[in-house]
Amino acid sequence: MAAAKRLARAAEENLGEAAMSEVVQEANRIKERLRACTTAEEVKQVSDDERDLVMSWNPKGLKPQDLAKELSKSPDTRALMHLHIVYLKVFLIRGFEKREQGRAA
Predict the structure, then answer these.
(1) Low-confidence ranges of the chain (pLDDT < 50)
(2) pTM (whole model) above 0.90
(3) Cα gap 63→19, rounded to integer Å
(4) CB-facing half-sphere around the CA of 92: CA atoms within 13 A
């Protein structure tokens, strides 16, 4: 949790390139954890574990569609990593659910 607090502080203070590099590293770590999941339940658990950190990258609490529009106006690494993770989560959960539906049919 110390890393989450440190990253949130860096995001708030906009400490520059070094802080953004740390955000990208943390985002990549989370995405690796998500890709390693083998069930929708595991994806949901990883998402719950990392929720505070990922949500700190979207301090306005915008919906993904609104955040994407805002990014087109003003690029922000934190917000972009937030979207990567949100969309990866959705993609993985849908894939696992479709696979399960296929097995049940």
Answers:
(1) none
(2) no
(3) 24
(4) 23
